[in-house]
Amino acid sequence: QKEVEQDPGPLSVPEGAIVSLNCTYSNSAFQYFMWYRQYSRKGPELLMYTYSSGNKEDGRFTAQVDKSSKYISLFIRDSQPSDSATYLCAMTGSSNTGKLIFGQGTTLQVKP
Amino acid sequence: EADIYQTPRYLVIGTGKKITLECSQTMGHDKMYWYQQDPGMELHLIHYSYGVNSTEKGDLSSESTVSRIRTEHFPLTLESARPSHTSQYLCASSEEGEKLFFGSGTQLSVL
User: Fold this and answer.
1) I want to staple A44 with a disulfide (CB 3.0 to 4.6 A). Which of A36, A67, B66, B74 is the partner?
2) Which chain B residue has its CA at the smallest distance from A86's CA?
3) A69 Cβ partners below 8 Å, 6+ apart?
4) Average pLDDT over chain A, rounded to whole?
5) CA–CA separation, A32 vs A92, rounded Å?
6) CB contact under 8 A, B100 and A2
7) Bridge partners of B23?
8) pLDDT single digits (tens) B38-97
9) Quick check: B104 and A42 CB within 8 A?
């Protein structure tokens, strides 16, 4: 069984929709949670970073972590065609090591 | 401009050849990493380095080797490429361990 599960999609939404992306995990030691965005033929770029449980908001993006349920989410409000990409969740229990466990990635397409 | 560079972007090569994938960063980061990514699959850590002359193997077993002679340079070498090595190789660096900056990757195809 994978440590991190992520629905690969693809997910197709109309422009302006609210998008919800999710990951579940099994390792209760995970404390650092990240969302990376990867455009086609590019490397991932860090979008959101959260430590432990709670919410974090940055513009149209909101990251939520529920450690009791081992579940993390990324919400995108007012989605734009430029948001079309693959979104990867990543997490680790070890501080400052860079040893991240990634989900499979969810491919999102936002249609104009 | 501070960045992380990978060359080549694409490489098609025959079985048995020796290859080196280059990775350089201008951000002065001590920590550097190599991740492997197959289409539609998770990224897996294959090598990492926390500084000059320091290299370790990651969680995914790999026949590749790495070196870290200079802070900014972290090349990956395959002594004898095989079709099973076909994959995308992503180099990353970080100052804080969780916040990785990735290069654009090298797509390797071994025939």
Assistant:
1) A36
2) B40
3) none
4) 94
5) 5
6) no
7) B6
8) 988 899 999 999 999 999 999 887 889 999 999 999 999 999 999 999 999 999 999 877
9) yes
- Report whether A79 contacts A68 (CB < 8 A): no
Give the tens place of pLDDT for each residue, A28-77. 999 999 999 999 989 999 999 998 888 999 999 999 999 999 999 999 99
- Which segments of A44-97 are extended strands (E)? 45-51, 54-58, 61-66, 71-76, 85-92
Token duo for residue B27: 């951000």
Look up residue B58 and give its amino acid. Answer: G
Instruction: Please count the other Cβ atoms lying within 10 Å of the Cβ belonging to residue B2.
Output: 9
Angstrom distance (rounded) from CA A87 to CA A35: 7
Task: Tell whether omega for the bond before A8 is within 30 degrees of 0, i.e. cis.
Answer: no
Given this model, what pLDDT does residue B1 score?
64
Sign of CA dihedral A96, A97, A103, A108: positive
